[in-house]
Design goal:
alpha/beta, Rossmann fold, UDP-N-acetylmuramoyl-L-alanine:D-glutamate ligase, 2 domains, five-stranded parallel β-sheet, 10 helices, globular
């Protein structure tokens, strides 16, 4: 997994200004305070981004392949499909894409992590696991697709992490002490393209987990 040090003195852009994009910009400001950065966001978000980050180059248009290829690293928000053709073209020209999830795992490789995914029930399962761990006396952080973005908790001293991971994030997580897959049904086909790819992306959690817990009925 990449680390913030890998981004130093590189051409870096953030794509998306939702909660993940904002967390990435704050983390970059802390870890690489003199790093020039570019942000792609919607026109509705541009004014807020410029106010919050005066030194940021804010572009209120969606990047095409040529724009993406001008950067060494692009930190992409999870909701932007990794299968977009402009991403594949930019990757072929050397641009590397990462995310807040991947950067957190790169920085916190020693963390004890339970990763939870599934089409339904992952939020409830994650919250329940965190509640039980806290009841047992573990200092536990609940984050990811539920609660705070991972990069917002980059320096948290939790003893155990319970992370809810969407199908957009499972390929960027690991290592996991425990992986939990609640169930699998067709969803998010606009992002994954096909049911087969959705299932394969969800099951990437298994590759990152030392121990895997699944619903046998599935």
């Amino acid at each position: 997994m990449p680390r913030f040090a890998d981004l130093a003195a590189r051409r870096v852009a953030v794509w998306g200004y939702g909660r993940e994009g904002r967390a990435a910009l704050r983390a970059l400001a802390r870890r690489l305070p003199r790093q020039p950065l570019t942000l792609w966001c919607s026109a509705d978000e541009a004014a807020a981004a410029r106010t919050a980050h005066p030194a940021l180059a804010v572009l209120d248009v969606a990047p095409d392949a040529a724009a993406l290829a001008q950067f060494d690293w692009v930190i992409k928000s999870p909701g932007i499909s990794a299968y977009r053709p402009e991403i594949a073209i930019a990757q072929a020209q050397g641009t590397r894409f990462t995310s807040g999830t991947a950067l957190w795992f790169g920085e916190r490789a020693e963390a004890r992590v339970v990763g939870v995914t599934g089409t339904k029930g992952k939020s409830t399962t994650s919250a329940l696991l965190a509640h039980l761990a806290r009841a047992l006396g573990w200092r536990t952080a609940l984050a990811g697709n539920i609660g705070l973005p991972l990069l917002a908790l980059l320096d948290d001293a939790a003893a155990l992490w319970v992370l809810e991971l969407s199908s957009f994030q499972t390929g960027e997580a690991g290592p996991l002490e425990l992986g939990v897959i609640t169930n699998l049904h067709e969803e998010h086909l606009d992002w994954h393209g096909t049911p087969q790819r959705y299932r394969a992306d969800k099951l990437r959690l298994a590759d990152a987990a030392r121990t895997l817990l699944v619903d046998a009925a599935q």
